[in-house]
Amino acid sequence: MKSKESGKVRYAYGVATALLLGGTAFSLATGQAGAQVAQNAPGTSALAPRGAPMSFADLAAKLQPAVVNISTKQRVPVRTQADPFEQFFRQFDPSQQGGNDNSQGSGSGSGGGSSSGGAQPRTREAGSLGSGFIISPDGYVVTNNHLIQGVNGTGTVDTVTVITTDRREYPARIVGRDETSDLALLKIEGRNLPFVQWGDSTKARVGDWVLAIGNPYGLGGTVTAGIISALHRGITGVGAYDRYIQTDAAINMGNSGGPMFDLNGNVIGINSALISPTGASVGIGLAIPAEAAKPVIDALMRGQRPSRGYLGVSLQPVDEDLAPALGIPKDTGELVRSVVPGAPGAKAGLVQGDVIVKVNGQQVTPDQTVSYLVANTNVGSRIPLEIIRSGRRATVTVQVAERPTEEQLAKISGGDSGTQGGTGPSATTPQRALGLSLAPLTPDLARAANLPPGAHGVIITTIDPNSNAAEQGLQRGDLITSVNNQAVNSPAQVIAAVDAARKAGRSSVLLLVQRGATPGVFVGIDITGK
Questions:
Q1: Distance between CA 244 and CA 142 in Å, rounded?
Q2: How many angstroms separate the Cα of 407 from the Cα of each of 154, 238, 304, 403?
Q3: How many Cα neighbours within 13 Å face the side chain of 92?
Q4: Cα angle 116-118-119, degrees, rounded to a multiple of 5
């Protein structure tokens, strides 16, 4: 089974629906109106819990026929090592003797039985096992894209087979797939097939029961149950689809693509990943919520590419290191790391270092990121973005464009963000600030640091291993391009910016740091100690 990995993530599982105890009350007996009472105090007017069902058997029996196993096959090249005895034995092979040593081979000449001299590359058959579910009586099947994607990350597998609970096998056609959301739609030929319906994941609550059915480790028809452990769980920190339902129901390799059901038997999630130090379930499974999955599947069923909003900016969360440097509370919006020239964000006037705090009136939070809000905005609409720039709040209006394909985005991200550069001053003796030895960027230093043409800034020549800059991961050869959103081209400018931040009462400064040809990253450095 091909596993999907993202950082510490590997695979996913599902969730369920139940009622929570909770609520607040005020005491009339004490005479203090509005006084709070413990959430679990006796006599509070919370709804009584429904509790666990006596058995999931009836629900499982009803749902299992619509859950299928996904089996794929693909021929992949095999790396072969050179045979050290080949040249030795060639002198004893009459077919290899004579004036012609056709060492390149054409793949169509004589000697095709030789395993070493032929030009045909060796291949082997690779396969994967996963899960899916039928959503229509005529055979549309939902699963994960990573199950049917080629082993090298491009293209698709050669064949896909759908196996039902009664062991019938159907060849499946790939109707469409969406790498961004990790979803795919298949079609098998059948009539009056058992199918399931989507549920409303927006009504799911932490603590609700969920049921997961899938094909872990090839063991088809496996049913597990658990509760929703968390909602809007982010595991990568980026992207519109980094927003999962977390469950403690057992999810293992092979559960990918399978459904997560609520107790009404509706699909509220698609099991897609798990977090585990071992690769096996430790009670942290992740499912794509139905609210995100259904629009993608609907578009694929219509033969369309899913439409998503796009700003053309790269973002960073405002964490505990960056917040003091920006002078704002932690988790206040997201920091613009770079802006794609000509994209909607650039046309609206967004610049590197802006902090986006609201999108169309909705607050940006770790649970509700800019990527999520923009992706779910209608393409072509004009919306306000509330930003913080140099400590002041402002509003810009942006016309949302359609998000490019993954291939197009990869090409876009390879470019520079387009910050303007100045004329580099002449080289001077390295100066120190923040526990760093700094020097102006010269052509020789730029080549040594593998920096792209046109790079500008101040290069780190040495670093104090006990400094906060070292703790934040800065290294020799890193290029500081700005301090507190002010471009720098000399060590003196860095030192002046740090001194200005101290005089302003700041506890840290915001550096934009570039390493090699990769885009710059904002880093907050503590200035209270050095």
A1: 17
A2: 10, 17, 17, 11
A3: 4
A4: 120
- Per residue in 4-14, pLDDT tens? 433 333 333 33
Q: Are 522 and 512 in contact (CB under 8 A)?
A: yes
Using CB atoms within 10 A of its CB, is residue 61 exposed (0-12), middle (13-18) or buried (19+)?
exposed
> Are residues 305 and 299 in contact, defined by beta-carbon separation less than 8 angstroms?
yes
CA dihedral 367, 369, 371, 376 (to 10 degrees): 70
Q: What is the pLDDT of residue 355?
A: 93
Active site residue 390: no
Mean pLDDT of 14-41: 39
Distances (CA, A) of 99 to 95, 96, 102, 116: 11, 9, 10, 19
pLDDT tens per residue across span 334-358: 999 888 899 999 999 999 899 999 9
Q: Could you list the beta-strand ranges (E) of 67-197.
A: 67-77, 123-134, 140-144, 159-163, 169-171, 173-178, 183-187
Q: Tell me how far apart the alpha carbons of residues 353 and 510 are, in angstroms, rounded to a whole number.
A: 9
**456 counts as catalytic:** no
| pTM of the entire predicted model | 0.67
| Over residues 501-508, mean pLDDT | 82
Task: Please check whether residue 169 is in contact with residue 161, taking contact to mean a CB–CB distance below 8 angstroms.
Answer: yes
pLDDT-derived band at 439 (thresholds 50, 70, 90) equals confident
CA distance 232 to 270: 14
Catalytic residue among 71, 131, 146, 276: 146
> CB–CB of 19/47 below 8 Å?
yes
Which helix (H) or strand (E) element contains residue 503?
helix 491-503
Q: Which of 128, 178, 182, 456 is catalytic?
A: 182
Which residues lie closer than 8 Å to 51 by C-beta, 6 or more apart?
Answer: none
Report the SS3 class of residue 506: coil
Residue 98 phi, psi dihedral angles, 5° rounding: 125, -175
| Per-residue pLDDT at 66 | 95
Q: What is the pLDDT of residue 13?
A: 32
Question: What local confidence, expressed as pLDDT, does residue 428 receive?
Answer: 37
User: Do 435 and 463 contact (CB within 8 A), yes or no?
Assistant: yes
pLDDT bracket for residue 424 (50, 70, 90)? very low
Handedness of CA 221, 224, 225, 227 (dihedral sign): negative
- 146 among known catalytic residues: yes
Secondary structure percentages of the chain, helix, strand, coil, to 5 = 15, 30, 50
> Where does the pLDDT of residue 497 fall: very low under 50, low under 70, confident under 90, or very high at 90 and above?
confident
**Rounded distance between C-alpha atoms, residue 353 and residue 392, angstroms:** 12
Annotated active-site residue in 71, 131, 181, 256: 256
Phi, psi of 26 (to 5 degrees): -120, 150
Residue 36 pLDDT grade (very low, low, confident, very high; cuts 50, 70, 90)? low
Q: Which two tokens stand for residue 350?
A: 């967004």
On the question of pLDDT at 86 being above 60, the answer is: no
Phi-psi region of 113 (alpha: psi -120 to 50; beta: other; left: phi over 0): alpha
H-assigned helices in 128-282: 145-148
